[in-house]
Amino acid sequence: MNQNKRIYLASPHMSEEGYEKQYIEEAFETNFIAPLGINVNEFENELSALVGVKSAAALSSGTAAIHMALKAAGIGEGDIVFCSDLTFSASVNPVRYLNAVPVFIDADIDTWNMSPMHLEKAFDKYRQLGKQVKAVVIVHLYGLTADMDRIKTLCDKSGAVLIEDAAESLGTLYKDSYTGSIGDYGIYSFNGNKIITTSGGGMVVSDQEERIHKIKFWSSQSRDPARHYQHSELGYNYRMSNIVAGIGRGQLKVLGRRIEKKKYIFEFYKKAFWDHEDIHMMPVNDWNRPNYWLSCISLKGRLSPLEVIVALEEDEIESRPIWKPMHLQPFFAEYDYIGDGISEEIYRCGVCLPSDTKLTEEDLYRIVRIIKDL
Ligand SMILES: *Cc1c(COP(=O)(O)O)cnc(C)c1O
User: Fold this and answer.
1) For residues 145 and 147, what is the distance between their CA atoms, to the nearest angstrom?
2) Which helix (H) or strand (E) holds 40?
3) pTM for this one?
């Protein structure tokens, strides 16, 4: 009966209790549809309390959040910003919005995230060139984490601002800290396929309350505190609406439940493929408690990611390749890349398997069967 039911990679999953609707209802009743309102303030407070930071600004997207974090860090024209090479383009585009210069740092095979070794090499190279590195944007891919102690030490030593792109890793712990709370700034995304969604939205968090205050100012058109419309700085229209924030508050209540299900999905695949030496699960380190946003595998034998993706697609099952590294993107081809081709190797062997929190055990057996039959 389930045959050919469409299976998604990761789709929106509202709370079973209908919390999101309750918060939206309240906003309707008080006519706080927009702008801002209680849901926005409370969504910021609730998320900051959860991850353990002093302040947060709810924005229209994760991309806007990265843009504002970079601006708050003082990034401008010509500044060097080190970025993860293996990531989604949205973590790098904002560097270009500010006319700054991205430099791509290779991934590590043991973490799938930025390699501390190559980061160190990059700092050395730019020191020798006499160029200051203003910031590092580090990604925590697929709910895993980078080796943050080593990366933070390197950033501190060089005086670079550390921005964590935790768009994919809300709820992930690195040792005892939530991703996004470790660097100077952290950002989250609530896009439709993320672990929780507001239909679209983002958040910047930081312990520097004054900087978050400034981000809120820029994000609401940089209106000076005057009755007449006066502007002393460039403005943006990036704030989250009170309706959208209501969805976020409801979703935050079920984050723990979603992580549990994502973990169950990961463990299911791990068990199913443990005796297949050609299929490796993405690396979960012991200092890492992931949110398991997507369950990814690496194929070591003759089977290619494309064969897996196409075979699943033929049965109405959605899967995806790993992000194509930034230094291989036509748009970013002119920028420097420091590495050994590890991100490329992960990309060439990797597949993101369906990780939808609505998946049933039956669905999982169906997915695994197709891959095993190959
Ligand atoms: C989704 C994502 C973003 C962008 O978030 P949006 O809310 O879609 O703008 C940024 N970085 C990474 C790594 C992402 O996965």
Assistant:
1) 7
2) helix 38-51
3) 0.97
Q: Which residues contact 32 (CB under 8 A, 6 or more apart)?
A: 26, 38, 39, 242
Q: Which residues line ligand 1 (CB under 6 A)?
A: 61-63, 87-88, 90-91, 139, 165, 167-168, 189, 191, 202
Concerning whether 121 is annotated as a catalytic residue, the answer is: no
Beta bridge partners of 205: 56, 186
Using CA atoms, how far residue 234 sits from 71, 98, 223, 267, 302, in Å, is 11, 12, 9, 48, 54
Residue 145 and residue 116 in contact, taking contact as beta carbons nearer than 8 Å: no
The predicted-structure confidence for 111-132, as pLDDT tens digits, reads as follows: 999 999 999 999 999 999 999 9
Q: Which residues pair with 220 in a beta bridge?
A: 237
Asked if 126 and 155 count as a contact pair (C-beta separation under 8 A), the reply is no
pLDDT (tens digit per residue) in 256-305: 999 999 999 999 999 999 999 999 999 999 999 999 999 999 999 889 99
The two three-digit tokens of residue 290, written as one number: 């992931």
- Mean of pLDDT values over 129-137: 97
Secondary structure class of 24 (helix, strand, coil): helix
Q: Which of 88, 163, 185, 199 to mutate to test the pocket of ligand 1 (most atoms within 8 A of CB)?
A: 88
Cα 285 to middle of ligand 1, angstroms: 23
The atom number, within ligand 1, closest to the CA of 64 reads 9
- Mutational pocket test of ligand 1: of 93, 138, 140, 191, the residue with most ligand atoms within 8 Å of the beta carbon: 191
What pLDDT does 3 receive? Answer: 58
Q: For residue 170, report the distance from its CA to the centre of ligand 1, in Å.
A: 12
What local confidence, expressed as pLDDT, does residue 227 receive? 86
